[in-house]
Each structure stands twice: as C-alpha cells, then as structure tokens.
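Please decode residue identities from the backbone states below.
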C-alpha cells in the first residue's frame, strides 16, 4: 500500500510537471519570449468579400522597462445604405516579462462607442473600467490567480516562447474582452506553410497606385483557439517573430501588406482625405500649406470638445488635462535626464558602414550624430538637429520610407519623422511616432513628429528643428500606420477654442479655431 501510494503521488506530480511544461508556458518562458520582441510595425489590407475596405496595423515599441503594443483597424462598412467608418483599437503596456500592466480597448462599430481600460495590480487584481456611449465608466475589481494576456498578444506568447510545431497545444491565461474576466484558453498549431510577401512598395506615376516590390518568403504557422474561447480567442497565421501574416477580426480578413499598398491605395480609391475647408483644423501638412516655423510656442491653453480626450492619453510631463481644458507647458528639465545609457556603437564607423545595407547606413548616421556620446538626451538633441538640416522641405504623396527619404533628401513631416525614427532605433534610442495637430499662426494643421523615451516620452520635432518640441503640438495618436487614418477619424468631430497662447488670453474675436 505504501509503495502504491508513493507511485500514485509520483505519477500525479509527473502529470502536473507535464501540464506546466508542455501546455502552459511558464513565467520564465514568457520572459524569454519578451526578450525577443523587437520594435517595429506591420500593416494589413482589411478585406471584405475580396474587396479592400480598410486598413489595419500593429505597432510595437520597446523601452527599458516596458513593451507597448498598439493594434488599430479602420474600415468603411455599408450600413443602412450609408458608408460608415468603423474603428477598433487596443493599446497594451507590458512589463519586460510580457505581463500586462495597463490596457485600453476602444470600439466604434455599428452602435455607441465603447471603451474599456484597466490595470493589473501585482498579478492578483485586475482593476477595469467599462464605458459605453455617454454612460460613465463602470469600475470593477477582478481577482486573478496569475499573469494574464490579451488575445492580441497570443501570437507573441506562442511563437516567441519556442518554435511552433504542428500538433502542439498551448494553454494561456487570456482576458476575455467581452466579459472582462480571465479564462484559460487552449490554442492549437494546426498547420505550417510558406507565404510570399512584399517587404516594400514602389509608386507607379502612371496608375497613381502603389505596388509591392522585393518579395520575401516567410514561414508561418496557423494558430486556432478552442471553440469555447469566444472573445478570448485568436485565429490566424503567425510567423516565427510572432507577427501576424493573415487573420480574421470583426468579420474582416486582414492580409499583411507594405504600408503604402495597405493604406495609400485604400485612401486613394475612396477619397479618404477630407478637405475640411470650413474648419481651421487642416489635414494638410504645414509644408504643403507653405508654413514655416521661426519661433516657439512656450505655452498653450485650449478647450477641446467633440472627442474623448481621456482616451487620447494626453496626460504627461507637459500636458495637463482638467475637464475639457488642455494646458501645454514646456517640458521640465527633469524629464530630459535619462536614467539609462545607449549601447556601445564604437564598432560601427561612418566609413565602413555607410556603404553596407540600409541598417548600416542608419547606424552610421546615428553614430555621426551622437558624436561619441551615450547619453540619450544628448544624442536625441543632436539627431533632431542633424535630420532637420539634412532634408529639404517638400510635400509628398503619401509617406515615403526612411530609405526613400534618405536617398531623396526631401520630404514633409512624415518623412522627417520616419528618418529620425529609423536612425534613432538603429543605435538603440527608444522612439515612437506621434501624430496630431500643430498650432501655427492662429491655425491648426495636421502634423507628425517623433517621441523619444528619456525619463518619460518626450516629443521632439526634426521638421521644425525643435528639441524638445514646443507647446504647439497636440498629440492625437501614437504609432506607425495609425497616422492619418486615426487622425482623420478624430478631426471631423474635433472642436478647439484657444484660450491663451504664451500666457496671453485670446479674445473671443481673435479665437476662430474650431
């Protein structure tokens, strides 16, 4: 009997070990997967009945202590005989161990806008708020038994923990967005295949359309959740870096494409750019509007209505939101003092790297701009000046890549930003893209600029040659690929009253912004 009890206990322990090792990635495995996450963005054509109706993107930003993942989808759907713009967005901030810290989910599809947001306290409590239409957020606390993931993070957790194999099963703790409750979901690796994708695009001046070039072969695996997963599931093809190749969301099929093919062609086909002639908020860039900046706006106070500012995440070191009044002041000096140092780059020299590949070119330019410094503050300021001086202002069709911009040495705010981000990331400086509006000479214009992570995210502007960017910048979206699509969905409803500029109140007669 004793011998039988020992054997039974041993078998039970072995079963627990097998379950933990083969069906549920351990915390160490998730941390190992997080170490392999790299910054970047992938873009998708949103298809319905074999017709492109929208655009989607996934953007990843990495900082010293966190990982940010932003998923965005915009599609034009016919409802009630009218074409309606529907959007969905998920913004997740993770620890470097791939554990959810905070998240925001917003959905505007066929009904009142719905938002949800939350934070995880110590892997034991989820504090979540749900908001629908004009109803106030309903806050609740949900007990957790351990770390949780959102469905959008499943590709990273499965692909980066270890190489996927057909027939493998993985059980992950997923937060179900529909019920805002955690549940264990089993994911199956059903198949393995090879996809041929274009990794860049070229513009055909005859057809006025972008087409893919430079084909690349990508191996991918088909992941599928159990039928019981519900809203916590994920189904699609994922490559070995955890990036989605093809998937289905909200009834749409998403197919990976170069940015210009995914977004610019869709915008051109259905006339996405609104003229907004009756507004002071223009979707033209400052360069296209022949505007130049020769001064700084030290402070700006505006009253904003028509959009949910709380969901735009405007609170930071120099943005202060009180009700619907936004006050922008200079960035404090303390925010510029980074608590980390850039990696060593002495092995890369301008003479040896400048003629080798695009990444080497960016690294070489970054090293030249850094001038031997590893202080992120010094490097970011020097790089802002270098990019500002190296490009010639020119309005462009769409957004050219950093490589195209480097070759042409010209562009508008999108190109200045793309080049800055490419160079900054090549030398280890955490950078992301911000998109919004800039206030110049009594009028707001569409604008894009980079943000660098020092003590916190700090806006810089190589287009204007400003470090840090002045108070004229109002951020509406963060992340590559979102850009005009996201801002265009906000601007039509955006109304702005300028209260004060540089501490001087604006009289009602002078205030014409809306």
């Amino acid at each position: 009997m004793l011998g039988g009890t020992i054997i039974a206990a041993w078998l039970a322990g072995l079963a627990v070990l097998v379950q933990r090792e083969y069906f549920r990635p351990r915390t160490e495995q998730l941390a190992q997967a997080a170490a392999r996450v790299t910054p970047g963005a992938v873009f998708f054509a949103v298809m319905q009945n074999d017709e492109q109706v929208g655009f989607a993107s996934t953007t990843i930003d990495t900082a010293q202590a966190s990982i940010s993942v932003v998923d965005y989808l915009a599609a034009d759907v016919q409802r009630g005989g009218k074409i309606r713009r529907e959007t969905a967005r998920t913004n997740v901030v993770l620890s470097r161990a791939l554990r959810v810290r905070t998240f925001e989910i917003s959905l505007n599809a066929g009904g009142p806008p719905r938002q949800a947001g939350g934070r995880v306290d110590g892997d034991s409590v989820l504090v979540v708020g749900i908001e629908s239409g004009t109803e106030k957020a309903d806050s609740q606390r949900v007990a957790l038994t351990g770390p949780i993931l959102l469905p959008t993070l499943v590709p990273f957790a499965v692909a980066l923990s270890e190489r996927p194999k057909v027939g493998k099963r993985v059980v992950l703790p997923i937060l179900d967005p529909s019920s805002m409750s955690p549940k264990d979901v089993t994911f199956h690796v059903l198949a393995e295949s090879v996809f041929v994708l274009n990794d860049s695009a070229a513009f055909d001046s005859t057809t006025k359309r972008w087409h893919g070039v430079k084909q690349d072969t990508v191996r991918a695996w088909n992941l599928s959740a159990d039928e019981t997963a519900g809203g916590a599931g994920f189904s699609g093809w994922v490559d070995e870096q955890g990036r989605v190749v093809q998937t289905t969301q909200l009834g749409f099929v998403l197919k990976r494409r170069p940015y210009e093919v995914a977004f610019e062609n869709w915008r051109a086909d259905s006339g996405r750019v609104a003229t907004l002639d009756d507004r002071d908020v223009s979707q033209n860039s400052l360069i296209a509007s022949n505007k130049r900046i020769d001064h700084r706006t030290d402070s700006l106070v505006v009253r904003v209505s028509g959009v949910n500012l709380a969901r735009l995440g405007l609170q930071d070191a120099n943005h202060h939101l009180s009700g619907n009044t936004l006050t922008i002041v200079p960035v404090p000096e303390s925010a510029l003092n980074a608590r980390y140092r850039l990696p060593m780059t002495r092995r890369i020299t301008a003479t040896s790297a400048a003629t080798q590949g695009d990444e080497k070119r960016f690294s070489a330019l970054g090293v030249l701009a850094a001038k031997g410094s590893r202080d992120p503050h010094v490097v970011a300021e020097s790089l802002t000046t270098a990019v500002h001086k190296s490009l010639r202002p020119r309005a462009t069709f769409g957004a050219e890549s950093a490589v195209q911009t480097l070759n042409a040495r010209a562009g508008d705010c999108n190109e200045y930003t793309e080049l800055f981000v490419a160079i900054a990331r090549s030398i280890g400086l955490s950078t992301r893209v911000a998109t919004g509006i800039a206030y110049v000479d009594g009028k707001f214009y569409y604008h894009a600029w980079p943000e660098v992570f020092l003590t916190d995210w700090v806006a810089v502007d190589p287009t204007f040659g400003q470090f840090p960017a002045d108070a004229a910048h109002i951020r509406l979206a963060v992340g590559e690929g979102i850009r005009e699509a996201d801002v265009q969905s906000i601007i039509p409803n955006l109304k702005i009253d300028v209260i004060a500029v540089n501490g001087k109140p604006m009289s009602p007669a002078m205030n014409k912004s809306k």
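Observation: The longest strand covers residues 181-204.
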